[in-house]
Amino acid sequence: MAEVIRMPKMSDTMEEGVIAAWNVKVGDVVKSGDILAEVETDKATMDMESYYDGTVLYIGVEKGQAVPIDAVIAVIGKPGEDYQSLIGNAAPAKKEETTAPAAEAPASAPAETIDTSNIKAAVIEMPLLSDTMTEGVIHKWLKKVGDTVKSGDLLAEVETDKATMEIEAYEDGTLLYIGVQEGQAAPVNSVIAVIGEPGADYETLIKAKSGGAAKKEEAPAAPAAAPAKEEAPKAAPAPAEEAPAVASTGRILASPLAKSLAKEKGIDIAKVKGSGEGGRIIKADVDNYVPSAAPAAAKGATALTPSITGQESFEEIPLTQMRKAIARSLADSQSTAVAFSVNMEINMDNAIKARGVMNDASPVKISFNDMVLKACAVALKKHPSVNSSWRGDHIRQNHHVHIGMAVAVEAGLVVPVIRFADALSLSTLAATTKELGGKAKNGKLQPADWEGNTFTVSNLGMFGVDSFNSIINNPKNESCILSVGGIKETVAVKNGQFYATNIMKVTLTCDHRVVDGALGAAFLVTLRELLEEPYKLLV
Predict the structure, then answer these.
(1) Domain interval for residue 25
(2) Which of 137, 162, 457, 477 sits 20 to 30 Å CA-CA off 491?
(3) Is 383 a catalytic residue?
């Protein structure tokens, strides 16, 4: 029996995954344990294994596409096995059907006999919006399943190879089905939606269409191009630089993206000349728009205002899964934790000397960050109330110390966890941080590497930062985060004498629901004592 492969949940905060790469294709024979695909989660890029033996019958997600947890992404089974009932009528399935060998073409012939005459619904196909268009990308749906639509209503914004344009409805009814999600591409004349009476059997209608029937539904493509004929006569009389395309209704023809950009820049869209299909105004027209020269200065003017010209530009960068997770986590932290900060300066003269001596004997180079992590672990055992978290109707006080170590990576920020940090020697802790840091940089962290933190340390000292305030990493697991600045040589005074010393500034951000000001300050006092007398880290 064929088996459905679904998007697995690979982290506690994961809501969707992106297929970074497929390692198999339809028709490949796979065994249990084979790597099917690489999946980008909110934490790292991970391998997805097969748990079944068989042949890959169906792949429903393209490389680079995001998929919710538990969504169907593939099917494995026996060659020729019918898997359609397992995946329903998902639009991506038809894409894989087109890859079937030509010899199988006769099998689709029965679809021609499917009777759809009593189905009170009509399919909406991707229209041909330009002479070079082969597919369109759904930029945005303006209606959702269940909405009532009328002929002439705008259904969606479609990005073509020329511009972003609007698709209108040519039927009255209810939007029963959306087969292409925002950001996905669909070939010209492929089914993207169905409009009809509530309860209509649109699945049979789609099935008939996929088998080659219902070609009559291609007709809507023609009206989409019709406005171009209406626009031409209107464009001729106006000045070349000032005449936008105008439909018979008086509406200026411009893509939604162009309208939005013009509004953002304060440009009157009516003054922009369109270069798109039928004179439609597109994004490039707004980007390149230069206002007409201002009237000459009045007679007697004594000064000329210099004219400054330039081109505004920007880049829209899609959110990675990691950036989405960071945004959700930090927004949740800001909206739940009642945060305050405590600052302290720590003299690092003795720590500098101790590190030099320890590195002469340690098999692994010990960094100042390793010393801070170890000092935090020891201090947390002395102040267990700081090693706690808010749980709504109670406070969880942890007896174990799992310290999160914030690591900057190209896609954002990850926080691998050093488990039982208080029980590790400095050299073992240093080896652990280097291993976790390397895995984070290479996207090789596994769920066990980032879950369970009870406290977090974020160090920006290596970037020359003196001090900063961090946002509590995960208020559900911890109540505090320590921000560590760089070690800075400075001048101090003792007994009336100036002398050079090395100071490091730290900031403890606390959730006031769990940790009060005096408790946070007491923790920092212990941390300072451990770093200013580093031999205490070894006993």
Answers:
(1) 3-88
(2) 457
(3) no
